[in-house]
C-alpha cells in the first residue's frame, strides 16, 4: 500500500519531535562531560537549530524510499 505525502510528513514530524526530546536530554547529560555549561534555553535553541534540517531529511528520505518501493512494484 502506498503511503500518502501527508502521512510521510506526519511520520517525519513524529520522528523529529521524538528525536528533539532525546537530543535535549542527551545534551543536558553529555555537555557537562566536555565542560560545556549551558542553560535550558540554550539547549532548546541548539535543538531547534537542527529540527528543520531533521524534518526535511526525514521527509525526503521517506519519499525516496517510497518512490523506490513503488518503482519496484511496477
Structure description:
The chain crosses the membrane at residues 12-34, 46-65. Keywords: Membrane, Transmembrane, Transmembrane helix. InterPro entries: DUF7220. With 74 residues, the protein is mostly helical. It has one domain. The chain is 80% helix and 0% strand. The two termini are 13 Å apart.
Main features:
74 residues
Succession of helices and strands: HH
Helix fraction by DSSP (H/I, runs of at least 4): over 70%
Secondary-structure-based class equals mainly alpha
Mean pLDDT: 86
The shape is elongated
| Major sheet size, sense and barrel closure | none
Q: Low-confidence parts, pLDDT < 50 over ≥5 residues? A: none
- How many beta-strand segments? 0
Query: In percent terms, what proportion of residues is strand?
Result: under 5%
Helical segment count = 2
Radius of gyration: 16 Å
How far from one another are the termini? Answer: 13 Å
The tally of structural domains comes to 1
Mind sketching the topology for me?
Layout: H1 5-30, H2 40-72
Helix pairs in contact: 1-2
Could you give a short description of this structure?
By secondary structure, this protein is mainly α. It is built from two helices and no strands.
Amino acid at each position: 500500500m502506498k503511503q500518502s505525502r501527508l502521512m510521510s510528513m506526519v511520520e517525519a514530524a513524529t520522528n523529529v519531535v521524538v528525536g528533539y526530546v532525546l537530543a535535549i536530554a542527551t545534551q543536558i547529560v553529555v555537555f557537562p562531560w566536555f565542560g560545556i555549561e549551558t542553560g535550558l534555553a540554550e539547549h532548546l535553541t541548539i535543538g531547534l537549530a537542527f529540527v528543520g534540517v531533521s524534518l526535511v531529511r526525514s521527509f525526503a528520505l521517506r519519499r525516496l524510499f517510497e518512490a523506490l518501493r513503488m518503482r519496484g512494484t511496477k
